[in-house]
Amino acid sequence: MSGIQDSVVIMTTNTVQLASVRVITDDLPQLVRFYEVLTGATPQYLTDDFVELVTPSATFALSTPERVAFITDNPPRAAANRTAIVEFVVEDVESLLALMKTELGDDLDVVQAPTMMPWGNMSVLIRDPEGSLVNLYTPVTPQALRLQQNRTPKMPPPTSKAD
Questions:
Q1: What is the DSSP letter of 147?
Q2: Which of 86, 95, 104, 155 is exposed most, by the fewest CB atoms within 10 A?
Q3: Dihedrals φ, ψ of 41, to 5°?
Q4: pTM given for the model
Q5: In sequence order, what are the beta bridge partners of 87?
Q6: Order of strands across the sheet with 133-139?
Q7: Nearest CA to 21 among 71, 77, 90, 85?
Q8: Coil, strand, or helix at residue 7?
C-alpha cells in the first residue's frame, strides 16, 4: 500500500437551456408587430414596456430601454446590435417570407433573398425594425434534416397536404 489515498472527483452537471432572447427597442409596438407576424405567437404584455412572445422552443422578449435603465455602467441601447443574428427554424421559409411581405409591406427589409446554403438549408436573411439581422431557415436536404434533428427545436415530421 502506497499510503496515497485515492482522490474522488465529484462531477456535477449543470443543464443550461436557452430560455429567451431580449431585444431592446425605442418603438415597442412596431417591433412587437414584426415578431408577432414572424412567430405567429400572441404578444404577452407583462408590463407596458416588456413583452414576451412564447414560441415552442424559447421565449422572444422585447422591451424599451427604460426597462433596463438599472444597468448604469453601459445599458443596452436600441438599434445598436451589429454582432448577432437571431435565427428561426421554420416549416416553409418562402411561404413565411410571402406572409411577412403581405403583412409588413415595404417595411420589410430583405437582406438576402431565399438562398440554398451549402449545408442544405433554404435561408432568407431579413432585418427587424431595429436593424437586427434575422435568419429564417428551412432544412431541405437529407443532410440538413439530420443536422436539425440533433438540435433543438427538432423539425416536425412532414405533413401530408390533402389536394
A1: H
A2: 95
A3: -85, 150
A4: 0.79
A5: 135
A6: 85-89, 133-139, 121-127, 109-116
A7: 85
A8: coil
